Amino acid sequence: MRRISTGGLTPCLTRTLTTLLSKADLRRIRFHDLRHSTATLLLEQGVELVVIKELLGHAHIGVTATVDAHVRLRLQRDAIDLLGRALDHP
What we know:
- It is built from four helices and no strands.
- The chain is an all-alpha fold.
- 4% of the residues are buried.
């Protein structure tokens, strides 16, 4: 995947994002946070790690795998919570 130089575009996009978040009364986030969210959502939908790595332009799959570890841990916790509720209310 070819990288595109953003030069002066990045500060403009950051200001625009900050303004939109403020108007919507949402907390401030960075564009990088959106990349992390993208990876998380794709993983939760079953997209393979190597595909996400390519989409995000990661040089090494280990970078993408750190997101995978967080997602799997949360999904495991959710599964344990569901099991606990099922056992509490037969």
